[in-house]
Structure formats: C-alpha cells, structure tokens
Amino acid sequence: MSTYQWDWGVVLQQVPESDEFYYQWLATGLGWTVATALSAWVIALLLGSLIGVLRTLPSKPLSFIGTAYVEIFRNIPLIVQLFIWYFVLPELLPTALGDWMKRDMPLPEFSTAVFGLGLFTAARVAEQVRTGILALPRGQKNAGLALGFTLGQTYRYVLLPMAYRIVIPPLTSEFMNIFKNSAVALAIGLTELTFQMKQITGDYAPANPIEVMTIVSALYLIVAFSVNRIMAFIEKKTRVPGYISGGK
Amino acid sequence: MEINLENVWISRDFILEGLQYSLSLTGFAMLVGITFGTFLAIARLSHNRWISGAASTYVNLFRSIPLLLVIFWFYILLPLITGVQMGADKSAYVTFAIFEAAYYCEIIRAGIQSIPKGQINAGLAMGFTPAQNMRYVILPQAFRNILPLLLTQTIVLFQDTSLVYVVGATDLLGAADKVAHRDNTLVDMYIGVAIIYFTISFSLSKAVKYLHGKIAIIR
Predict the structure, then answer these.
(1) For the whole model, what pTM was predicted?
(2) pLDDT tens digits, residue range A5-23?
(3) Keywords on this record (chain B) (predicted)?
C-alpha cells in the first residue's frame, strides 16, 4: 500500500492513442446504466403487476402460471438468466430468427439486458403487488363487485390503486435494486458504469484503480439516493389521507 | 439445435468442484456475515451517536452499491493492502462476508426491534446487565423470529455467488463456463447450470417455508 501512487486527476486524463477522456467513458457508462435500469423497470412494473394480479385470481390455472413464473425467475441467478437470453436463446430459436438476433438485432447487449433484467425484476415486483392486494381487507373486493363492477374493473378502480400505494416502500427497494443489478449486464458486454470502470482499471490501466472505483461508487450512491428521494416524493404525493400512516 | 444435457453429466467432476466452491463460499459468508451482522445491528441500535452513525454508514454504503462493484473493489484492493496475490477464489470469501453482513444486519436489527419492550424491562428488572439482557433475553427470541428471513437471505446469497464468475473464480457457473468454452457446449452447460441453481434454491426455499410454519411463535 505504501508504494501506491495517488492521483485523483486520473479520470481527467486522455485515453492513450485516442481523442477521448476517461471521464467521458464514465459518463457514457452512467448513461447506459440509467437507460438500462429505467427501460427494464418499465417491463418489470407492467409484467410484474400482471403476474402479481394473476396470483391473486380465483382461477387455479391462472394463479399457477403466476406462481411458476415467480419461482422460476427468482431461483435462477440473474447472470445465468442473462447468459441464457444472450447465448442460448438464439441457438434454440428457428435458424432465421436466431441469426437475426445474433447479427442484425439493434443494440444486442442493451436489448438483452433490458429484457432479461425486466423479466427478472418482474418476479420480485409481482410478489410485492400480490402482497399489496392481499393486504387489503376482503370487504374492498366484495364492495367493488357489489357496486356492479366486473372483476377487471374492481382490480382497476378499487384494489390496485390502494395496493400500489401500500407497496411503494418495497417497490422503492426494487427500483434501487434494478440500478445495482444492471451492473451484471457487463457479463454480456453492455458498456455500463461498472464495465467502464473495469476498462479503465483493467488493460489500459493508468494504475489508479482506487480513485476510479471510489468515483464510480460515489456515482452509484448518488443514483441510489436520487431514486430514494424521488420515490419518497411519489409516496408523499399519492398518500391517501388517514389510510397509510406516517411517511417521512 | 438440440439440447444435450449429457454433456453436463460427462464433466460432472469439475462441475461438482465448482458447486462445492459455491456452497463453501455461501456457508462461510453466512456464518461470518451473521456474526458480524449481529454486532453491526447492536451497534446501529446503540445510544452512542458515533457508534450507531458508523454502523449505519457501513450498512447504507454496502446496500447502495452493486455487489459486482464490491467484488472488483476487494479483488483489486486486497492484494494492494496485504501485499499478497490471493486470486479471485480467496478474495471472494472476504468480499461476501463483508458485503452480506450489511444485509444480515438489517434483518437482525428488525428482529431485535420486534422484541416487546416488556421483555427488555423484565430482563433488566431481573438484574441482568444490558449485555446479559441482549445475550440471554433479546437475541434468542429475535433469532427465532427471523430465522426464516436469514435463511431466505442465504438463498439469495447462494445465487449471488455466481457473480464471482466475472473475476474468473471457478464457482458452479465458472466451472460450467470453462467446460462450455473447451467443448463448445455453451447451450447445454448454461441450461444445466440454470437447472442446478433452480433445483437447489427452489428446494431450499420450500424447506424454509416449511420451517417457518413449524417455528412461528403464536402471539
């Protein structure tokens, strides 16, 4: 440790034999991290809500489909899931489609990461949405049906608006997780923030890994903190007076 | 293309070695993580602002950055500090113990806080010191309440150990990946690995659910 040459200016240096700077690498990395997490979150929220609702339905086969989805996607590590979508799926699809995925699909790493991360997180969101729906008093569903709503309308206008509000705190953690989990996409070559850090401290090595890793960690901290604040704001704005206690 | 899982069976010795590493990493990180996590939880609940502040900084820091980044941190930092090249397989033990302690800490803290105030007062009234109270009254009840959560976190931890693949360690995924690239059997190996992870995690989570029903304290 005593021989370590500190140099905090390392990210301001120019990349050897190019007209780029290291901080530009970090900026694009951060961009991909945020883009991947936000896009995957859209899939996770939509699909997760659908699966979560399926699991609460009175129909046996439908709730089984929901349960099976959650169990499969929760019990296989994310990195293995990404490998399967990226390396295995194109081999198993019909040749023409597989070849298209391998050669012509636009932004292959990004699309696969968004898709894989979205499906993975959907299983977690589904569990939260289901918990939220089950936490509501049974009278709410009956009241909805008694008012003449169809089951679909009861979910849409009575159950889900309350369930979402109840599960905002655990959804906040999932939303923060999706930013952290997007780092796993470096394994399929997505040039997100951790990938860029690895590039800078790796082969090109200006030999100052500690400074670069500190800066990257700080960037993740800022992202996590912002997400947390945004969700706290949404929680406050959507609170039903007198129903959900507290909220900071 | 055909899926031929026999390819996984053929290299079972090497794959099992990888699985063994994954499991031993999980076990070590669980034991050290829970021990260290207990101290962190007690520190977070301390009345001393410096102690609780330090503990919550530790926990919030590790819970805000990706595990993958922490893996790189220790992979690079440990040889710099110790001056010994220890390689990915060994540095992962330190990484996971330190990282998981933050997650276990939050579970244990919730467990301690779930103990009714009356229990704590009763212990103190019996003449226990605060430390004895923690040891004989609070922690035994807290751990019983949170055992299912601790085990669920351990299943997550087991799946997370697959990330050491990125620094080249030979865990279950790493072993399968090496075989896959040697024999050009990517499809079979990845599907085989997915099945192994699923079978272990799924049966463990079923067992935890069963245990939860058995030990839940009826209040």
Answers:
(1) 0.91
(2) 777 777 777 777 778 888 8
(3) Cell membrane, Membrane, Transmembrane, Transmembrane helix, Transport
